[in-house]
TrEMBL record:
This is PGG domain-containing protein. The keyword Endoplasmic reticulum does not apply. It comes from Rubroshorea leprosula. One of its GO terms (cellular component) is membrane. Pfam families: PGG. The keyword Transmembrane helix applies.
Amino acid sequence: MVAYAIAHRQEEVAKYLYKYGADIFYDIDEDGNNNLHLAAKLTLRFQLDRISDAASQLQSEVRWFKSVEEIVPQFFNEQKNKDGETPYQVFVKEHKNMLKEAEEWMKKTAESSTVIGALIITIMFAAAFTVPGGNDQNTGFPIFLNTTEPAESFTVTPFKVFIISDAISLFTAASSVLIFLGILSARYAYEDFLMSLPMKLIFGLSFLFISIATMTVAFCATLYVMLRGQQKEVIPITVLAGILITCLALVQLPLLLKNMALTPRPNIFDRKTATAQELLASNIPILSFVVDVVIEIKDRLISYLRSRKG
């Protein structure tokens, strides 16, 4: 039963059996394979198909192998089966094609995200020097910089919202590009897919999401500055921007949460199941904080526009 649970990646069964002691994992079969050899073999295809991409599939396989490695005797690592192969040699042979697919998927994701991040950097950098309304010819400062608004309705002017959002979008886009460049220059060893590459992907996608969201906020603030007094046109566009951010979150967050869920703890047999909200809060709390801030800015801007209309 132990050998079947390890070979077929039955985590719950293996964790249940582990409660009775690690010594039950010390068996060796008639082919000279210990349980670490069994963990090194590629699992059945239908189990891999439950995981969407090749990188996450390889991460799951590496995580399982490393977890079993921690509970078996240390000499199992160097023990050879009848074919003269150690567990790690079996793992490399079985997962050779998966490593190529995972590397290709990770590079394509990083390349496409780098292009998007570079475009955002170009746009937001140019926007910082071509501010809405232009600059005062005498002082050189933006014309709308000292625009005052009723303190009781909205304490931050739309122009300041534009400047802050533009800066956040620029810096987060630059951070995401640097992270994705780090992914492209990685060595792509099996161990890299366990923690290093998934964490880079999580933070890279998180910064890219924040950059797109704040870019949308800056766009809405610019529209209000340029179309002051035209609330009928500004309010629908602001609402559409809120829908855009929501749709973007629905598209990006599943991939982020999936990578968070697969990011391993030191030992899989001690792993506790976490909800999506707990994973989001424990892995990258800055993401949930910034999303809340963006939504709050959008709600306040809509409330302010409605009050001005009234």
